[in-house]
Inverse folding.
C-alpha cells in the first residue's frame, strides 16, 4: 500500500515492510515537448525543434566538421537517435548523452550515391537497422545496417532504385519510410509540389533477408498551394495507416515564408488526388533555410513513460535542453 505525506510530496511509501522514495512527477505540457525536428542550412547549422502545434521550442548545433551542409533529417521511433545527411554524402548520427542533450556520435559516407543527397530515412523493418538515402535526381539507395555503421566508413550498396516525378520540372527533396513497406518521396516542382507513395518489395539478396527488391508507385498527392521550396516530408510512427503527412517549406509566396504544413490523413491516400496543405506553424525567425523534417514518437500522456523509460530517452530532460537557444559546441 502507499501513503502520501501531508506536505503533498509523495516522498514516503511503504510496500509491505520495505520503504522507498517516489517523487511526484509532473509531466511537461505538450507545448514543451518536441514533435518536429527541422534541420537548417544557415550558418551556424542547427536542428530546430517544434511542438505539435508548431510552436518553436529551441535548437541545437550540428557538427560543423562533418555536417556543414545538412540536406535532410531522420529519426528512430523514440527520437533517441537522429541521422542528418549532408551535401557531402556523409550520414551523421546524433544521440543523447547522459544529460539528455543531442551530441554527434559518428559519420559514414553514402559513397555509391550519385548526385547531391536530398533525403534520408531510417528503416528498421524486422530489425534491419537500415538507412535509405536519396539524391536530387531521384536515385534511392538502401544501406543495410546503416543505422550503426562505423565512423569514417565509405559504404557502397547494390540496392538502388530510381524514382521519377509524375510531372516534369520537379526534383526530389526528401523521403520518409514507415518502418514497414511504404516509402513517401516529396518533389519540389516549378508549379506544384508532389508527394509520391511507393510500395517496397522485399526478399533475400546475397543472404540478407528483408532487402528491398523493388519500388512500385502507388499514387501521387499534388499539393494544391505552392508552398515555396518544399524541402522535406515526414510522418508520425505511432499513427498506423491513417495518420497525417507533414512537409516543411521555405521561401513561400505568402506569410509565413517558412513553415510546417500538414496533409491531413495523407498516409491513407492511395489514389491520385490534389490536397490543400494546412499550416501547422511558422518556423523560428532564425530557421530560414530548412532542410528536412522528422517526427519521432514523443510520449505525452503517460507520466511513468515521460519520467524515464528503459526503451528510450527521457523527454523531460530533452525538453529542458530544448528550451535554450543555440548552444556552443566544439569539433
Amino acid at each position: 500500500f502507499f501513503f502520501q505525506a501531508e506536505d503533498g510530496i509523495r516522498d514516503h511509501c511503504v510496500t509491505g515492510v520495505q520503504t522507498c522514495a517516489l517523487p511526484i512527477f509532473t509531466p511537461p505540457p505538450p507545448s514543451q515537448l518536441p514533435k518536429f525536428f527541422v534541420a537548417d542550412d544557415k550558418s551556424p547549422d542547427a536542428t530546430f525543434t517544434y511542438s505539435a502545434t508548431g510552436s518553436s521550442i529551441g535548437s541545437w548545433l550540428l557538427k560543423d566538421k562533418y555536417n556543414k551542409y545538412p540536406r535532410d533529417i531522420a529519426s528512430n521511433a523514440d527520437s533517441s537517435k537522429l541521422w542528418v545527411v549532408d551535401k557531402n554524402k556523409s550520414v551523421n548520427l546524433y544521440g543523447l548523452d547522459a544529460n539528455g542533450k543531442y551530441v554527434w556520435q559518428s559519420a559514414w559516407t553514402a559513397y555509391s550515391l550519385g548526385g547531391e543527397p536530398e533525403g534520408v530515412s531510417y528503416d528498421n523493418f524486422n530489425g534491419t537497422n537500415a538507412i535509405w538515402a536519396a539524391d536530387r535526381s531521384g536515385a534511392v539507395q538502401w544501406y543495410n545496417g546503416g543505422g550503426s555503421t562505423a565512423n569514417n566508413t565509405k559504404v557502397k550498396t547494390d540496392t538502388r532504385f530510381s524514382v521519377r516525378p509524375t510531372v516534369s520540372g520537379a526534383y526530389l527533396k526528401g523521403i520518409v519510410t514507415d518502418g514497414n513497406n511504404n516509402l513517401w518521396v516529396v518533389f519540389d516542382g516549378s508549379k506544384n509540389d508532389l508527394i509520391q507513395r511507393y510500395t517496397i518489395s522485399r526478399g533475400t539478396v546475397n543472404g540478407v533477408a528483408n532487402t528491398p527488391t523493388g519500388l512500385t508507385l502507388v499514387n501521387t498527392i499534388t499539393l494544391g498551394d505552392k508552398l515555396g521550396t518544399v524541402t522535406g516530408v515526414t510522418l508520425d510512427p505511432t499513427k498506423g495507416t491513417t495518420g497525417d503527412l507533414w512537409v516543411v517549406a521555405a521561401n513561400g509566396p505568402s506569410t509565413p515564408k517558412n513553415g510546417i504544413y500538414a496533409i491531413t490523413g495523407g498516409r491513407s491516400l492511395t489514389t491520385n488526388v490534389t490536397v490543400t496543405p494546412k499550416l501547422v506553424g511558422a518556423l523560428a525567425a532564425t530557421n530560414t533555410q530548412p532542410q528536412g523534417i522528422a517526427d519521432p514518437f514523443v510520449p505525452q500522456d503517460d507520466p511513468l513513460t515521460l519520467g524515464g523509460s528503459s526503451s528510450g530517452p527521457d523527454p523531460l530532460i530533452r525538453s529542458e535542453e530544448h528550451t535554450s537557444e543555440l548552444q556552443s559546441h566544439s569539433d
